[in-house]
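Objective 1.3, modelling of assemblies. Example input:
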Amino acid sequence: MANPIEQFKIKPIIDLQVGGIDVSFTNSAFMMVSAVVVATAFLTLSVRSRSLIPGRWQSMAELFYEFIANMLKDNVGSEGRKYFPFVFSLFIFVLFGNILGLLPIPVVGFTYTSHIIVTFAMAAVVFIGVTVIGFARHGLHFLRMFFPHGAPLATAVVLIPIEVISYLSRPLSLSVRLFANMTAGHIILKILGGFVVTLGGMYILPGILPFAFLGAVTLLEIGIALLQAYVFTILTCIYLHDAIHMH
Amino acid sequence: MPQFDPTFFAPQLFWLAVTFIALYILMATVTLPKIGAVLDERQRKIDDNLDKAAQYKAEAEAAIAAYEKALAESRAHAHTVIKEASERLSKQAEERTHELTAKLNAQIKGGEARIAAAKQTALANVRDVALDVAGATVARLVGTGIDQARLDSAVAAALKENGQ
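Predicted structure (tokens):
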């Protein structure tokens, strides 16, 4: 049986060095570029006809657009409008990373959202950006966020550390949630795939069982791919809301 | 796990930055304005059509009101026309009846006059016949030599006696 961890291995395709830093074009980079190309092609070409009555592809692109636009409007309000391109890009980048990662592409097939460094970098950008927006809008008053309104002053000793810790753990929870979900899902898929091969090679009937199960789990993984992209985006929206409106 | 191997942190971060910035620029400048324009265009068309529909509805209502007004007017007009016509006709009928009655009366009168004249003539004829018969009878009974004057008066007396 193939090692279920092997699929997360990064394989350099082109070795590159810039200023002593390794910037090799790897299978991960290939999938990132693919995601950008596929997403942009899909979203741009599908609305090319600008039909009044959208076709399948166009309505899918419009669905994504309105989904994120409404999410931002409901969670952040009209002030969130200017962050729409960023939030939309974030959603598309995570979504296409998750979905394209599920495709059995030979050699370069890879799920970059299953790498903690990638998810953490995105979460860190969100976290730093949100914090900067918070201080820019409210100045030092933004620190009031760590002490809820109306709480007795004596509770500050306990409340403030808790609030600070919960605030600082946001990028961790955001990145680990996505990374862990994708990693666990892909490991399960690989193990089940291994069962199909080993059992199916020996007997016909036992191979069918894990295959059926593999099919079901694949459907589940597609659902998780969509759900995790949604969760990542909506949490970003909620953090933005906190920074702009302070609870 | 390969995820925790720092060897490939740098290239992943580098390519993440490159691709994400590229995606952001593409989305912000090309894709999102395009989709937004399509959605705005549709919303505009829908609003336009709704406005037009409201306008047409108002027009249709005005047309219905005008039609009903015209209908009521023409109904009233028809009423007066029918009334006038029936009045005229009844007047005409009355006149005609009048004329006819007059004409018939005149005819009846003429007839009566003619009957009276005929009666006169007939009576005169009766006299002549009576004279002749009386003359002949007298001549046969008494022979010749009849007094014409006495015969005349006798016939006249007889006729008078019979109420003629």
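The longest helix of chain B spans residues 9-142.
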